[in-house]
Amino acid sequence: MKSRILVVDDEDSIREFLEIMLKKEGYEVTLAEDGLKAKDILSKKSFDMIISDMQMPNMTGLELLKHVKESYPDIFFMMITAFGTTETAVDAMKMGAYDYVTKPFKIDEVRLNISNALRTKNLETEVRVLKKEMVREYSFQNMIGNSPAMHVVFDLVRRVSQAPTNVLITGESGTGKEVVAKAIHYNGPLKDKPFVTINCGAIPENLMESEMFGHKKGSFTGAIVDKVGLFEVADGGTLFLDEVGELPVSIQVKLLRAIQERVIRRVGSTEDMKVEVRIIAATNRNLEDMVQKGTFRQDLYYRLNVINIKSPPLRERADDIPLLVNHFLKKYNEKLGKNINAISDEAMTIMKGYNYPGNVRELENMIERTVALEAGSTILPESLPPMVNTTSGRRMASSHEIEMGDDGLDLDKVMGQIEKELLVKAIHAAGGIKKKAAKLLHISFRSMRYRVEKYNLGTVGDDELDDDN
Question: What ranges in 187-318 are assigned the alpha helix state H?
Fold first, then answer.
């Protein structure tokens, strides 16, 4: 879209000149002969920028600027004057004007100032939109899950996000610890401040101190310029220490000082710098065991573990799998330009029965792969990766997993679920050929067909066979 500019000046020649010049530059231009007319136009139409004269009858440029900043704060304002002093122009800048030029002005100067102003406005708009997207993406309402384990996480995120308390998020790899950390940040008072991540397991020990705290030029070989550390970058916001259990003990000491005293010192410097940073740490390791073994400092552990949030493994929240599958299906349909709008009952049963050693990350990768390779509009069992169907990857129901409640249990329902899972397993072990699946289960094809229809596991297809067999 063309940028919209409102030109306000009581001189006809100035308005006409700017209109011709700006239209040649590709802008959409509207004219007003004074501030009152401009107010009326602004109430009916939106603009990206206003170029206004300083001295006008009925309403001065400063009065118009004040009205615009109060009612339309996103509009950039440029002042033009032949009469105002430097002090008056400075007053306009203090009130929120982006820039000013004096009459008679140079065309190239005006053209450049307008271009720079609109470029700045577009960047500010993009940043504002991105921040809103980040808040929406990482708000706890959009963390996927409806299981009891996830409701515990939601409640903790809701409460912890409002205070600058340090948080330790624990859980297996792939459980979404960083998503939890971002949800805490973007739902709290620091949401407009930086969120900076340090992957403690990915940075070599000899570079870790420099990455965290920065360094001075010449402090070591290769330090050819001053470097700002990530603590400084995160100042005022949140620093997320991912896989904090991988930190070398030598760095743990310096991290502890930064957290306790809220000061850092660049490598090679003799001066301390004050920083205000909220720490959220995450690990898939047992830090308590590491403390006992002497590989993780006890005092640092207590500083980090003020509030502990456990990110549950996917196998403990199997009821969330359909929600996650549909979420990732929508995401990768959009990303890959596909239109897969359904998942067969068999495929969903298989996905719910898999152990997911890689947790939510593995499920997301599985859905991305499936969407990329699926030629039809429905995800079928054969679309899923082979390892999902292996015995080691499946959670088959067994008698010791079934608990008898105070009110007993529905035996038919339980047995039906076990039978359905065994049928699905046999069908996939047979490559989808139900004749072979019947033989694996030592039942007749007639019995197999009856059970397939009973549990809505699909049609017999090309596998035709007499009922007697």
Answer: 205-213, 230-233, 249-261, 287-293, 298-304
